[in-house]
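Mods, move this if it's the wrong board.
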Amino acid sequence: MKKYFTEFLFVMAVVAMVVLSAVATFATTANPSPASPGYTPFVIPIMGTYSSNSTPVSFKAPVGYRVLHASATAKGVTGTDPTLTVDVRNGSTSVFSAPISITAGAITDAVLSTSPLITDEGTVNVVFTKGGSYTSGQGWSNITLFLWLKRR
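Not the wrong board. Structure tokens:
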């Protein structure tokens, strides 16, 4: 009886290892080892309310990057049929196939372009394009943009 119990535990341990490794295999975004150099999670909180086309964030990239993942969300929205897209541009070139259409309270992932690159010392712009109508004080509020970058 003890022999069968030991064999059962061994089989269960092997099954557990196979299942856990399969879960990591099916992850949407590749998860590099924490020891892997060159990966940068970049969170951009954009506070305030936005109701017009604007470029609320611009910065110079310290090194060249490849964008591996991007997503955006807004905490809230007010207005009549409000829409907002968020685009990240390397200079004037988008790193997305299409700008992210955001929904308040939901996280929306970007579809990256075929060459989602940020150049070394290049200017990165976050561009908002709005739709719908807004009165004073209405718009999209507290937007968060997340970029997962790999140094090139």
